[in-house]
Amino acid sequence: MGTLWFWIVASMLAAYVVLDGFDLGVGIVYLFVTKSEQDRRLALRAIGPVWDGNEVWLLAAGGTLFFSFPLVYASAFSGFYLPIMMVLWLFMLRGISIELRSHSHEALLHTLFDGLFSLSSTLLAIFFGAALANVVRGVPIGPDNYFFLPLWTDWRTGPHPGILDWYTITGAVLALVALAFHGSLYLALKTEGELAQRALTLARKLWPAVLVVTLLSIPATVLARPDSLQNYRTHPMAFLAPLLVLASLAILPSAIRKRASRRAFLSSCLYLAAMLAGAAAGLFPVLLPSAGNEGRDLTIARALAGSHTLRIGLVWWSLGISLALLYFGVVYWLFRGKVSRHAEGYGH
Amino acid sequence: MDILTLHRIHFAFTITYHYLFPQLTMGLALLIVVLKTLALKTGQERYAVSTRFWAKIFAINFLLGVVTGIPMEFQFGTNWSEFSRRTGGVIGMPVAMEGIFSFFLESAFLGLFLFGEKRLSPKAHWASAFLVFIGSWLSGFFIIVANAWMQHPVAYQLQPNGVFEVSSFWALMFNPWAWIEYAHNMSGAVITGAFVMSAVGALYLLQGRDVEYGRTFLKLGVIAGLISCATQIFPTGDLHGKYLAKHQPVSIAAMEGLFHSEKGAAMVVLGQPDFEHQKIDNPLAVNKVLSFLIYGTFSAEVQGLDQFPQDQWPTTLPLLFYSYHIMAGLGTYFVALMSLAGLLLWRGNLYTSRWILWPILLSFPLPYIANTAGWMCAEIGRQPWVVYGLIRTSEGYSTHIGSGTSLFTLLGFLGMYSVLSILWIVLVYNFIQTGPKAPDHETSETSGQSITAV
Fold first, then answer.
1. What angle do CA A128, A131, A137 make, to 5 degrees?
2. Rounded to whole angstroms, what are the CA distances from B432 to B198, B427, B429, B448?
3. Å from B23 to nearest chain A CA?
């Protein structure tokens, strides 16, 4: 039961990264690929009807973690107090800048909201990368299962890490380039004309960066937390995840060259999902590893809610998530195709 | 300021501010479904135009509800980690269900509702409005199930490590407290929606502009307001009071300012509680009414605060007393105002009676105050417990967060929310000034049209 819930939470987070990842990515590359007011409106319309729904995956994953592993929710959220609060503020800035831009008529205000949208999207990608790297590296969990991380200490991993150290910064850079790449491919898929062309060109330039940082992240992870190889030794099946990462990266250059934007975007989705699967496979059965002290890892067994609670949860979770997938199917189907330059709303 | 107080203010401020938005969202969602239904049934253009007008205000209000709501879900863990650890197995369930059953529904269909009018058939567009309404009301339900468990814990098992688990899903969902609280709360949300809609209608009529729409808004607002103000007091408020008297007698004694048990207890309408000397200053009281309201007879004995040990009294008693009196006082005023307006509507001279249009216009902030005061009654009245009778508030907060850190983020929220308030006011003012019959360029893609799905 615990294993199942571990993978449920992990896949909800993966869904969040793949889906909200592309609209955050659009925000990161927004100022680089758009040259005119028309481009900018087009780029925003490409994410308009979906970004809020994508964000819900994070909330749903958070809620699911709260009820299936209350101890991890309590410990991690209070321990990562400061970065979480900053993420909340960034979400606010991002949400209002997207919405308010469409209600303002002033070019000056458009510039302001464009800047805010791009800045908050970029910072969110950096925060999420650093957050994931913090979870992989481990945190100094105390005897009472709690911890509190300062934003930085001596920039080193080890028994007294901060939110930011060399390893989590690597994670942040990885998230930034991977999501910028993902967002460019989404724009190439959903828009047309020069904007799509520029997005594709940017993606082609970003690909080597994604490859290099991805390859660097593997030895970095082993250095930051040697235990993460344990599962790979005992369960060679886990190597499927890094293989998929490499395979999806390998498909990309030819897809980009042939302007097969759908194939390119789907490969990028696969890349992100496989990266997260690889990280989760390295962690399992730990949800939050302890840095420094042995035996304080927050494992599935220690953090799991009661079995009756979880059995009930499985019933409504399956029902609810099927409905959610249905809604997503309807929305994405209605929003299929490229966003046109002339028509409104759903692009037709 | 001690750390517990800071965490409490942190949560109180962010939740109070957040709930300014959902109450209008939930109230308007219902009224928009009514407008959309009228548009579909009658085929009259004015209902379709009215729906589009309110959808714009709804969208911006919804967005602010979302961005101020995300912090709420995270704050259980960030500021109240010990409470979360112990109760996640129970209240984590409705919180997760809210995300999975209502947020996905709302976010998907709000996009269709806002952008899809041209693409969807009229019935499918109506259905998207209806599903947004269902989503927002479901969201309210799950949150109230979580809150009701904190007010009146049922269906739980305490594990040896201090953690609570659900013993029966249906008993948790059918916690009687949750249904009474839900009915009272949703009726309160409809009051906010109805007062805002009537106020815009009254404004247009007073200004002599968009008269056709002013009348539509005022009529719908007054009818919805009349019904919701009545149900707010009876049966939902009445039932809530009786339930409170049965299960949290100390809270009701504090709300009423009843220091000493009394047979045929009087209801204090106005006054200032003097807790140092345990009496009410300058009381304006009606004899025996309190006994009647709670027990249905004028002679019943109502337990006063003296019946309970001091360490079980709600903290910040005067604030609780005032919250309750503000809520009840405003509720009474709402019934009077809406009854009068309803009478004039029935007699056919509401639209020309400027003397009533003025108070209708000026009253739109009051339901916000009443709803906030009502929630303050619930939350302050529950003190000193975070889960009534089981976990004290002082046992629930995150001990690892320093008071400086908590104050830092509280100030951050204060700043951020000041900006949000200004933006909301400017935007909604602009929508109202532009009016329902926005010229074409306002709704075309060049401007005015909401780009996002939220």
1. 140
2. 13, 9, 5, 13
3. 19
B78 touches chain A (CB under 8 A): yes
Q: Is the pLDDT of residue B449 over 90?
A: no
* Rounded Cα distance, A98 and A114, in Å: 8
Q: What is the pLDDT of residues B3-38, one digit of tens each?
A: 999 999 999 999 999 999 999 999 999 999 999 999
Q: What is the ipTM of this complex?
A: 0.90
In one letter, which amino acid is A144?
A: D
What DSSP string runs through A125-173? Answer: HHHHHHHHHHHHH-B---TTS-----SBSSS--SSS--SBSHHHHHHHH
Residue A284 lies in a domain: yes
Instruction: Please give, rounded to a whole number of angstroms, the shortest distance from the CA of B78 to a CA of chain A.
Output: 4
Domain boundaries, chain B: 3-245+350-443
Contacts of A147 in chain B (CB under 8 A): 400
Q: Domain range for residue A123?
A: 2-334
Given 3-state DSSP classes, what are the helix, strand and coil percentages for chain A, each rounded to the nearest 5? Answer: 75, 5, 20
What percent of chain B has a predicted confidence (pLDDT) above 90? Answer: 75
CA-to-CA separations, B358 to B218, B353, B361, in angstroms, rounded: 12, 9, 5
Domains: count for chain A: 1
Q: Is the CB of residue A47 less than 8 Å from the CB of residue A26?
A: yes
| Residues with Cβ within 8 Å of residue A186, at least 6 apart in sequence | A22, A23, A25, A26, A46, A47, A265
First to last CA, chain A: 46
**Which amino acid is located at B189 in the chain?**
A
What distance in Å separates the CA atoms of residue B207 and residue B354, rounded to the nearest whole number? 10
Of residues A50, A59, A105, nearest to B99 (C-beta): A59
Distance CA B313, CA B307 (A): 10
The pLDDT of residue B274 is above 90? no
Q: What sign for the dihedral angle of Cα A202, A207, A212, A217?
A: positive
Torsion-angle region of residue A149: left (phi > 0), alpha (psi -120 to 50) or beta?
Answer: beta
Q: Is residue A341 part of a domain?
A: no
Whole-model pTM: value is 0.92
List of chain A residues whose C-beta atoms are within 8 Å of the C-beta of residue B95: 63, 66-67
